[in-house]
TrEMBL record, chain A:
UniProt domain KaiB: residue ranges: 7-90
Protein name (database record): Circadian clock protein KaiB
Coiled coil: none
Matching CDD domains: KaiB_like
Pfam families xrefs: KaiB
UniProtKB/TrEMBL annotation, chain B:
InterPro entries documented for this protein: AAA+_ATPase, Circadian_clock_KaiC-rel, KaiC, KaiC-like_dom, KaiC_dom, P-loop_NTPase
Keywords associated with the record: Coiled coil, Hydrolase, Kinase, Phosphoprotein, Repeat, Transferase
SMART domains associated with the record: AAA
GO function terms (MF aspect): ATP binding; hydrolase activity; protein serine/threonine kinase activity
EC number: 2.7.11.1
Record protein name field: non-specific serine/threonine protein kinase
């Protein structure tokens, strides 16, 4: 069993943000069968701007995977699932 | 993507169009504020554009740190340089940036695009930028904001199809936010044009440029636009070095110099006498022009010493001699400048009154020279500044530019209320004509000249003019002796005006002639007195002679008459005897 914690930063519930959440959840569901579990935390930086500051976020939606290092960051609506997996280094 | 989809953080509290214009926000750079008629438009974005190394970041940092020094707070958003580098810069210019950061007066938002980010999908949102800036501004209640090198965003998100719309939204938000803001961009006209930065977003546009002429670089600044306020329209040169930004308006100078009735001693009694007996007025502009070896530097040093002796500060800017040379050379004529220098023994009481700055004329452009001199004057506040020789600035350059710069330099020093002593080196074939052509600015003009005659060189000194002073209009002789400088009245006599050894010779010649003439005069006067007596004597003689002659004749007549009488008597007696 392999659990990965991901944080998805959005800036308000925009259409792009919703698409990114959907895409990330779909990716998580697809990974379930391979024995990977993605724990996804969605953070709205409009509510917690200090977190955007801490992570030096300029653009959203942004997925950040901190562990294991190195830090992986993927920005955009996450519509191409394969590229997301590569970008986050989530290939089982 | 429609912009209405976005929720703009913290923009609700900003009034998009302030009803009444607020007073401008000073940048703290006095020269720039003067050109901007007070400062940047308050509550509005201003654009600062220029290529790398033109000083955008330094100006923006100064603007922010100046506000903090005035008790405000500031937010600096960097898209290019690291926060550490910015803190180093600010501290290098004397702003306590790290302390401000720790105390919560300054915040630096690191918005450098991260190259390791992977972009998936074509759309991104830049709301995070607005959220972070808005959050920082709110937390600090900051009236000042800087977005430095904002064009770096474009290259950071080059893959995004909607980047243009997003950046436009960022700029609109900044404009709506009503904070006094400086945006800086590189000199890429397309970037500011693409986002309407110059036309629409910014109320004030300042362009920075590097001008390279004769292999010497000068930085210039120009206000391209200033909405709702006046501004100087010229290109303004400015300094950027370890002391920060320094800029003085080119033609904003006005004649508002303080007028002083105080006099400045020259340390040369004869020269004081030529200037009405008290030396030139303090705050005046003095030019000493002369060919090589006529003693310009010696007179300058003498005046420097005299002013230092009064405890006032003198700034000696030497364009030819190094300080050590100057001290040694002037020591040979009895002027000990070393005792006034900073390193001198403080027991003399005058140590530190002479600040000497050797400058190589070729080192900087004219404008940079001007700004460095003015900055030194503002920092040191001397009573007298000596520019020796100021003509070295105009050598090997365009003469009109040098003249214009020199006039402005003299104006500016005058405005500071500081006396200027400039020397001008005339070439040997100049026939004594000044090439600087700045006489309108000169209050006191002293001309030195060489007179070569009979195997000897004499130095002559004339006061061409001295505004407000009764001056000597005589050309006098000027001597550099081991015991100091002397001014000597020339020989004036039958043969004209003569100087030097010839003067002594002529004086000796005159002595002989006078002696002879005096003898002649005595003789003549005696003759004149005697002539009556002689006449009278001869008269007496003549009369005596005449009388004597008459008496003699009378006697002869009497003798002849008595002989005749005797003869007549004798004849009569004989006649009677015979008869």
């Amino acid at each position: 069993m392999n659990t990965q914690r991901l944080r998805l930063y959005i800036a308000g519930r925009t259409a792009v943000a919703d698409r990114a959440i959907e895409n990330l959840r779909a990716i998580a569901a697809a990974l379930e069968s391979t024995g990977w579990t993605l724990e996804i935390e969605v953070i709205d930086i409009l509510e917690r701007p200090q977190l955007a500051e801490d992570e030096r976020i300029l653009a959203t939606p942004m997925v950040i995977k901190k562990l294991p290092p190195p830090v992986r960051r993927v920005v955009g609506d996450l519509s191409e699932h394969d590229k997301v997996l590569i970008g986050l280094d989530l290939r089982p | 993507m429609p912009a209405s989809n976005h929720q703009d953080p913290a923009s609700d509290r900003a009034s998009p169009h302030p009803s009444s214009p607020r007073p401008p926000t000073p940048t703290g750079l006095s020269g720039l504020d003067a050109i901007l008629r007070g400062g940047l438009p308050a509550g509005r974005p201003s654009l600062l554009r220029g290529s790398a190394g033109t000083g955008k970041t330094v100006i923006a940092l100064s603007f922010l740190c100046h506000g903090i020094a005035q008790g405000e707070t500031g937010v600096f958003v960097t898209f290019d340089e690291s926060p550490e580098a910015l803190l180093d810069h600010a501290e290098g210019f004397g702003f306590p940036a790290r302390a401000d950061l720790a105390a919560g007066r300054l915040r630096i938002l690191d918005m450098r695009p991260q190259p390791n980010e992977v972009q998936v999908g074509e759309t991104i949102e830049l709301t995070a930028i607005l959220a972070r800036i808005g959050y920082a501004l709110d937390r600090l209640e900051s009236p000042r904001l800087v977005l430095d090198a904002i064009d770096a965003l474009e290259s950071g998100f080059a893959d995004s199809a909607n980047l243009r719309a997003e950046l436009t939204r960022v700029f609109d938000w900044i404009r709506e936010r009503a904070v006094t803001c400086i945006l800086t961009t590189g000199e890429q006209a397309e970037f500011s044009a693409r986002y309407g930065l110059e036309d629409y977003i910014a109320d004030c546009v300042i362009a920075l440029r590097q001008d390279v002429k004769d292999r010497i670089m000068t930085r210039v600044l120009r206000i391209v636009k200033r909405r709702g306020g006046g501004h100087g329209a010229n290109e303004y040169p400015f300094l950027l070095d370890s002391q920060g930004i320094f800029l003085i308006p080119v033609t904003g100078t006005t004649l508002q110099a303080r007028v002083s009735s105080q006099r400045l001693p020259t340390g040369i009694p004869g020269l004081d006498a030529m200037l009405g007996g008290g030396g030139p007025y303090a705050g005046s502009t003095i030019l000493i022009s002369g060919q090589a070896g006529t003693g310009k530097t010696s007179i300058s040093s003498s005046i420097a010493r005299a002013v230092c002796d009064t405890g006032q500060l003198v700034l000696y800017i030497s364009f030819e001699e190094s300080m050590d040379e100057l001290i040694r050379n002037q020591g040979s004529i009895g002027i000990d400048l070393a005792r006034y220098s900073d390193s001198a023994d403080s027991a003399t009481g005058c140590a530190g009154t002479l600040v000497m700055q050797p400058v190589r004329a070729v080192e900087f452009g004219l404008e940079e020279h001007l700004m460095r001199i003015i900055r030194s004057i503002r920092v040191l506040q001397p009573a007298l500044v000596i520019l020796d020789p100021v003509s070295s600035l105009s050598e090997r350059r365009d003469v009109s530019g040098a003249k214009e710069m020199l006039l402005r330099l003299l104006y500016l020093i005058k405005e500071e209320g500081v006396t200027t002593l400039a020397t001008e080196l005339l070439s040997d074939d100049s026939l004594g004509v000044s090439h600087l052509d700045v006489s309108s600015m000169i209050d006191v003009w002293i001309k030195l000249r060489r007179l070569e005659n009979d195997g000897e060189m004499n130095r002559l000194i004339t006061v061409i003019k001295a505004r407000g002073l009764p001056i000597s209009d005589q050309v006098k002789e000027f001597r550099i002796t081991p015991s100091g400088l002397q001014i000597i009245d020339p020989y004036m006599g039958e043969g004209g005006i003569v100087y030097g050894t010839a003067r002594i010779a002529r004086l000796a010649e005159d002595e002989e002639t006078l002696e002879q003439l005096r003898l002649d005069l005595d003789r003549a006067q005696q003759l004149r007195r005697e002539i009556e007596e002689i006449a009278a004597a001869s008269e007496r003689l003549n009369r005596a002679e005449r009388d004597a002659k008459a008496a003699d004749l009378d006697r002869q007549i009497a003798q002849i008459e008595s002989r005749l009488a005797r003869i007549t008597r004798a004849r009569a007696a004989i006649k009677r005897e015979r008869a």
